[in-house]
Amino acid sequence: MTASTAISKAIASAIEMFSKWWVRDTTFGVLIALSGLLLADSFVEIVLPKVLPVLFDGAKSRPIDYGFGIADGVGLAAFVCAILFKMFVMAVDYYKKPDAETAYLAATFTDPALAQKAHERAFGTRATIPEMEALKAHRDDPLGAQRSRARGGRHVKWNGTWYELRSKRHRLKKGITVALFLLTAVVAVTAFICGCASVAVESHLQAGVLLLESMFMALMAGTYVRDIERYSAAEHLVRIPPGPN
């Protein structure tokens, strides 16, 4: 194998992995994370001088001279893009997939490719024919198994008969995600409290930025909740093999 062939295969493999990771919810999450990070300097600039003296010196917080900067504007633009993107996705799903699950489960397909397209339309994920047959023929919970596969598919792999966790560090990744959720939730609550306090005694601009940051952090925490649900769905799918018919 030549060096150029090896590089081409590596690039193709990286693109395939990226395409599996970069799903619609990830797009929303990245935009929200970007907006939150761009406003993080404002959070640090405003909140820390207000909170740290109270915590460590018992002194009153002092007013902060703050101006709305370029990073804040870009963060706000990223937030607007995230909301518009989410609204577009919801509209597409509403008009495109009202009864796709029922149509797929009730249909009999002679063409495997059509079956795969119907499955992808119904559950939003790709699956091989053996996977689809095993999920559809699940003895106890065929619909639940397919929905768990749709939510947690990125964290499982097909072993020929059923699914197993894709990563040996699955629980560690889930634990890190839970920690990130708790961190963003604490930041969201802190920014919200400081923003509400700033409305009465200080600049309304500061209050607006802090309340906006709390909203971003809350939405980011929501994306971590979705990730935790995916990890849990993968674990549930692994625990419910079809068993003998």
Molecular structure report:
This protein starts with a helix and ends in a 6-residue tail after the last helix. It has a two-stranded antiparallel ribbon. The protein is an all-alpha fold and 245 residues long. Helices cover 75% and strands 2% of the residues. The model has no long low-confidence stretch (mean pLDDT 75). It has a domain at 98-168. It has helices at 3-21, 24-38, 40-56, 70-96, 100-106, 112-123, 129-136, 142-152, 170-201, 204-239, and strands at residues 156-158, 163-165.
Give the count of helical stretches.
10
- Note the beta-strand portion: under 5%
**Overall pLDDT score:** 75
Order of helices and strands: HHHHHHHHEEHH
N/C terminus separation: 47 Å
User: Total strand count, please?
Assistant: 2
List the strand order in the largest sheet: 1-2
Q: Characterize the biggest β-sheet.
A: 2 strands, antiparallel
Protein structure class:
mainly alpha
Supply Rg.
23 Å
Low-confidence stretches: none
Helix content: over 70%
Give the overall form.
elongated
Keywords: Membrane, Transmembrane, Transmembrane helix
